[in-house]
Amino acid sequence: MNFPPIYRVVTGHDAQGHSIVSSEGPLPTVVEVAAIPGTLFHEVWSTGATPVPVDNGPDPTLGALVLSPPAHGTRMRFVDIPPDTEEFLASASSRMHDAFSQIGEAAASTVQADSPHPLMHRTESVDYGIVIEGEMTLVLERGEVDLKPGSVVVQRGTNHAWANRSGKPCRMLFILVDGRYDPAIAAQLGRGDKP
């Protein structure tokens, strides 16, 4: 199943301060993760500060693909996730370094020999994951949740994976917000605050 392309409209202001369409059309950055064929990242927008500068600046999605949001920022993307296959699951753990390296964060992968899924990972962010089409299973270290269209996951920096056991592709929308672990959680994880 091929999902329709994402159509993006970006607004701005003209020289007199009137609202205008700055750009519209297909997303300029759509990247397939080579180590996980069929996984497509559709980069919609990102911000790099809070409060966000409201300006007519350049498109922040151009450039290298990065998993996490910028410091003090946000990232919005759609991800098309193919079904897990026996072949993928059997060889995935050896390819995960390459997959997470391509999306700018090799260190995000947390996969171990006893991990419940080969795509286990963690980012220091609060992520909203919304199932748009298809079905997905949220895999945690202790538990799983089956998700259907309209399901929303509020992912708070936990070790997790997305398992597509439905046999059909799934499209999810992710909005990632940069965060800092509570000191007690950071201590449990053996992490300090980000610089």
TrEMBL record:
<dbReference type="InterPro" id="IPR014710">
    <property type="entry name" value="RmlC-like_jellyroll"/>
</dbReference>
<dbReference type="InterPro" id="IPR047142">
    <property type="entry name" value="OryJ/VirC-like"/>
</dbReference>
<dbReference type="InterPro" id="IPR013096">
    <property type="entry name" value="Cupin_2"/>
</dbReference>
<feature type="domain" description="Cupin type-2">
    <location>
        <begin position="116"/>
        <end position="175"/>
    </location>
</feature>
<dbReference type="InterPro" id="IPR011051">
    <property type="entry name" value="RmlC_Cupin_sf"/>
</dbReference>
<dbReference type="Pfam" id="PF07883">
    <property type="entry name" value="Cupin_2"/>
</dbReference>
<protein>
    <submittedName>
        <fullName>Mannose-6-phosphate isomerase-like protein (Cupin superfamily)</fullName>
    </submittedName>
</protein>
